[in-house]
Structures are given as structure tokens and as C-alpha cells.
Amino acid sequence: VIVPLVFSSLVVGVAELKDIKKLGKIGLKTFVFYFLTTTFAIILGLAFTNVLKPGSGFTLPTTLKEVKVNEAPNFIDTLINIIPSNPMKSIVDGSMLQIIVFALILGGGLLSLGETKSKPVFAFFDGISNAMISITNGIMKLAPIGVLGLITPVIANNGPKVIIPLIKVIFIVYLASIIHALLVYSSSIKIFTKMKVRTFFRKASTPFFVAFSTASSAGTLPVSMETAEEEMGVSKPIASFVLPLGATINMDGTAIMQGVAVIFVAQAFGINLDFMDYITVIATATMASIGTAGVPGVGLITLSMVFASVGLPVEGIALIMGIDRILDMTRTAVNITGDAVCTTIVAYQNNDFNTDVFNDKECKDELFA
Questions:
Q1: Which of 203, 232, 339, 367 has its CA 20 to 30 A from that of 306?
Q2: Residue 70 pLDDT
Q3: Measured between alpha carbons, how far is residue 232 from residues 187, 228, 352, 357, 361 in Å?
Q4: Shortest CA distance to 91 belongs to which of 3, 28, 204?
Q5: 315 phi and psi, to 5 degrees?
């Protein structure tokens, strides 16, 4: 469901912008915001872990078995493969970066045709987008049962013996996530939109808790889009463009977890990291978040790339696998909140924002006509 949803939403979002120049401005603002906040998030994770030192004195298991995780592509391969040689194959394989690029190209092509010629194609993709949202909303009604099934065996198989020794790691990730949301997101809303921060977080609470329970950015996407348009006053073109991008490339919560995991494993194994190692971790973790699918557990895949960049043993991932579901919930919630913040800011600064809807007032004008 996610691939056709992201693809069709992006095509519709681009086509509805009406102006190809507007696409460039909005795209640049979106990428800059996501890049800067993700970089800050990884720095925050590194800083908190260095201060609280959860890995100091940690007793490694007597037999630390090597953990098999899917190999993450290196950054150069990601750049080379960003343009799909076969768009249909990219859609079948679920290669999100290639899907996004092709959707942007197709949307730009529809813009160049003019409204008369592009209208039938636009209507087709708009229908696909709405259908995928409807299907996902139906799936989400069953999500609580699925979440129960996912969490129960984790607790049953591991229990306190895994959670208690790593309670400090969980605390640091949650603390850094809260600080990041309060510091970065609150100040961004206040500075760039002049809107009430409390009102924003109240309206963003629905996708936040859906993301927290499902641990899936992509699965929360329909809820995020509906909230942005109907509760926050963001226009449909902006929501359809910025939010699908964010579900793929914005990983602030994941960056925090990776920063904490790197320092924790280094401390547990007695490995000293120097200043250049920290720079490498910041750069690698930021770039590794680009193009990763918004599905549960993807953070472990990108974490293997970050470990390799500074010579940490990949076996160290085994230390946090038992609590990854607990960490995944909060990092996904942070990712989703960051998407909402960026969407609100971009819409506000491009005059595609309805303050009456945001402030819960009746809107006399039809914003989405």
C-alpha cells in the first residue's frame, strides 16, 4: 500500500503546485530543514550518551553471537542509484528514493503540459492516492491487535533480563527525543510561523501516537496527511509533497538512536572514539537516513553502516536488539513530528496555510478549492 500511496501523493502534490519554480523553492526548503534537524539530532544523541555513559561498566555477554542484519548500501551507491533505469522495476522493488525521483519527474512533466492535457492523468493519480489512504485507514483499525502481537513475544522472550541492564540506554534515547522535540521543533514553529506551539503539538498528537504504537512512518502517512490538511490548515499540494518525502528521508528519531547506540557500544567494548570519529558518525548517520523505508526496525540496518564507518564491531548491534522495539516507537514518533513541523513551516512561508483552521476557527474561504 505504501509504494502507490507515496508515488501517487507526490505526483499529485507536484502537479497541484501549478508552478515548476515553486517546486524548486519548496523542495529546497524541505531538504534543508530535514538535513539540519537530522544533523542536530545525531549530535544530541552523541552528547547525552557521552555525559551519562551507559556503556561504562557494562558487562558483555560471555558469548556474543554475530548478528545478521541486512547489508545497507553505501552512500556512493545510493547517489548513483538515485535515478531509476527502470521506473516500473523500482516500484516493484520498493526502492523509495528512485520512486520519489520518478514521481517528481512525472509530476513536473504534468505541470509542463498545462492543466487541460494533464487533468485526466492528475485525476487518475489523485484517485489512487485517496484509495490508498482509505485502505490504510482500514488497516490502521486493526493495528492495535498487530502491535499487541509484535510486542508480546519481545517481552515474553526477553523480559527483565534484557530491559533492566539497558534501561539507561532507553532513558537516554527517550530523554534526547523529548529534548529534541521541545528545543528544535518548538523553536522552529515559534520562529518561522509565529503560531502557538501548544496548539501545534495538540493537533500533532494523533499522528504522534499512531507512529508511537505502530513504529512505522509510512504506515502513519495517511493520518499525518489528514491531520495536516484538516487540523493544521496546510494546503493539499504542500501536504502531498512534503509529508511523503519526510516519511522517507527525515529520520531525526533514528539519528538520535544511532548516536546513542554508537557511543554505548564503543563504551561497552572499551573502544575510544576521537573527534574525527564523531564527525564521521554525524556525517554517516545523517546520510544513512536518506532513502530508508519508513517501516519498523529499519534503524538496525542503517546502524550497521554507521558502525562500519568508525570500525565498531557489528556484533554490538546484538546488545540493543532486545530493546529495539521500545526504541523504535519513540524514534518513529519523533520522525513523524518532524515531518509535521516541516510541512507547517513550508506551507506558512509559501502562503499555503489557513490560520483559521489552525486556530480552530470557521474558515469563510475555501482553502482547498
A1: 339
A2: 46
A3: 17, 5, 11, 6, 11
A4: 3
A5: -60, -20
Percent of the chain at pLDDT exceeding 90: 24
In single-letter form, the type of residue at position 42 comes to I
Read off the C-alpha cell for 173.
534515547
Q: What is the largest CA-CA distance in the chain?
A: 69
- Angle, nearest 10°, between helix axes 324-349 and 252-268? 140
In this predicted structure, what is the pLDDT of residue 16? 74
Question: What angle separates helix 20-52 from helix 275-288, to the nearest 10 degrees?
Answer: 140
Q: Which residues pair with 353 in a beta bridge?
A: 234
Quick check: 90 pLDDT over 70?
yes
pLDDT of residue 63 exceeding 70? no
Contact 185, 266 (CB under 8 A): no
**pTM of structure:** 0.76
Alpha helices (runs of H) in the chain, residue ranges in sequence order: 2-15, 20-52, 75-80, 87-93, 96-113, 115-158, 160-163, 167-180, 186-193, 197-203, 205-214, 217-230, 236-249, 252-268, 275-288, 298-309, 318-321, 324-349, 355-358
Residue 364 main-chain phi, psi, to 5 deg: -80, -30
Give the 3-state secondary structure of residue 83: coil
Torsion sign (Cα): 224, 227, 232, 233: positive
Please provide the distance, in angstroms rounded to a whole number, between the alpha carbons at the two ends of the chain: 27
Collect all residues with Cβ–Cβ distance below 8 Å to 164 and sequence separation of at least 6.
Answer: none
